């Protein structure tokens, strides 16, 4: 669960621009929640040294907080541009990684840092 001060902007970004499918929406007195399907999920646990290594590979410097969400996309370059046009700050354009993927890094609505990655076949 991500708490977003600007709920409408975050919902538009993640649902309408990134394309996560809405599974349900609920409200309480004065509040709202929307459940978005982000596909298969994994939880990566890392130590600070390896987190710094990933940041160095993807961005060139240490930038991530303790939570970063990664989405596999068909075309990380195109999706990065689409998300930037929708208000995300690009921290790093798509970069080929040692693990053979094309990764970009963005600061997205609700103060959530994202990695977009496309697996490379070669």
UniProtKB/TrEMBL annotation:
Q: Name one GO molecular function term.
A: lyase activity
Q: Which InterPro entries match?
A: Glyas_Bleomycin-R_OHBP_Dase, Glyas_Fos-R_dOase_dom, VOC_core
A Pfam family in this protein? Glyoxalase
Q: Do the record's keywords include Lyase?
A: yes
Q: Does the keyword section mention Transmembrane?
A: no
Top-level taxonomic group = Bacteria
Q: Which residues form the VOC domain?
A: 1-119
Q: Which UniProt keywords apply?
A: Lyase
| Transmembrane stretches, start-end | none
**Coiled-coil stretches noted in the UniProt entry, renumbered to this chain:** none
The name this protein carries in UniProt is Lyase
